Amino acid sequence: VPATAAATLGGAGWWWAGADLDTAGKIRFVNRLTIPPLAPSQRDPEGRRVFDLRASPGEHRFRAGRPTPTWGINGPYLAPTLRAARGETVVIRFRNDLPETTTLHWHGMHLPARMDGGPHQPVEPGTTWSPTWTVNQPAATLWYHPHPHGRTAVHVYRGLSGLFILDEPGARGLPSQYGVDDIPVIVRDLNLTEHNELDERDREQGGVGIVGDLVTVNGTPAPYLPVTTQRVRLRLLNGSNSRIYRFGFGSGRTFTVVGTDGGLLAAPYETGRVQLSPGERAEIVVALRPGERDALRSFPPETGLNPWDRRWTGGDDTLDVLELRAARRLAPSPPLPARLAEAPRLVTDPATPPVRRFELSGYTINGRAMDMKRIDFAVAQGSTEVWEVTAIDDAPHNFHVHDVQFQLVSVGGAPPPPELRGWKDTVHTPPNVPVRIALRFRGEPDPATPYMFHCHILNHEDQGLMGQYVVTAPGRSAGRSPVRSAPT
Ligand code: C2O
Ligand code: CU
């Protein structure tokens, strides 16, 4: 590492030892991007699609020197991409060969609460858990990760996460050759100790948890992606514990957002930036010219974030994420379809009053921390509710709800921006900006097994910024909430 470059970037907080820097102090993208393998599956006699997953410790090479002890699923680090189509029944046989109890949660999936893999479905070391459900939701980029109460941050950080791609028969027109022009982009940041171990300390000590200097994609530091087609679809996942990214390209080129957390947008939307807080996804399509190189970067936020959030996005600097390298000849890609999906229309009147309010502050929701034994409220199956979520302190927060995909009704009283008008399961909540969401509860009634809602900044979640709801039989009036989230 040239000393001058290190000195320039050291102060920015995200320079990492071993990086190859060019004269402008930017990372040279030296490693070919790893594509997570597609998990093989089998058909059982009932026609169900069966996946075998096994979590275990491993080792992964992030930089020269010793390999880093990590955790992984069906491999030493991260997890294979699962894929299933709407209407299929999946069975996951998940074996825990880790030295600790964990869980496996299907983030964004509509499924029975006892299959959800939250903190109430622990998987002890040496045992196997086999959830099953029928996929019944639109094509989307979902993901999966552990959710053991109080230990989610460290289990995810050590490497347990992967994509779960849902397909829908009939959908077409978008680049869809996995690993060729349809690319998983799991963005995670981490710190290494001088011995190349994962540094699990909260260096900032501000409660936000781990903010890493080393930004990786699919576990690859300083990655480049060879591009061989005119258009390439990137399935972006912010898989980081705490960082917020505002993605864009170094050249200033625009790209097309085609999907949000839970499905495709109604129509493609062209923009230069898309911001993702932890857990959020966006599907984008980028067109390169033959022979061109351009880098996906994370840029400082323009509005809506407080100084804390600015730091987590990289302050006033850009973060290098992934270089796209187009071949001299690019295979033709079909034009993007003008219409992609149905827009969510759970609520059409933006003035619809919320039936519940959630104030996020510190490690609490409405002043209370998570209690595994407390159900915060019940909702009736089939009902639609508007919730208002407001972060009332100066810390960065977002809000994720299990089992449902929701519609953004308003952000600070204004209509949501176009890139957030698709189905969402996680939404950033800028300080003191009320965010209203509409949710329809389709879960099967199970008054004994809760679904979670929480901040996806994983240290906040672990420390208590989480609550639990249950779904009860249709027609029952929505249960009164023991927290201050019921109408007053
Ligand atoms: Cu991605 Cu409750 O989790
Ligand atoms: Cu938070």
UniProtKB/TrEMBL annotation:
Residue ranges annotated for the Plastocyanin-like domain, each copy included: 62-168, 184-287, 361-472
Highest taxon listed in the record's lineage: Bacteria
Keywords assigned: Metal-binding, Oxidoreductase, Signal
A Pfam family per the record: Cu-oxidase_3
CDD domains to which the protein is assigned, alphabetical: CuRO_1_CueO_FtsP, CuRO_2_CueO_FtsP, CuRO_3_CueO_FtsP
InterPro entries given in the database record: Cu-oxidase-like_N, Cu-oxidase_2nd, Cu-oxidase_C, Cu-oxidase_fam, Cu_oxidase_Cu_BS, Cupredoxin
GO MF annotations, alphabetized: copper ion binding; oxidoreductase activity
Keyword Oxidoreductase: yes
SUPFAM superfamilies, alphabetized: Cupredoxins
Family statement drawn from the similarity comment of this UniProt entry: Belongs to the multicopper oxidase family.
Protein name per Swiss-Prot or TrEMBL: Copper oxidase
Lineage of producing organism: Bacteria, Bacillati, Actinomycetota, Actinomycetes, Streptosporangiales
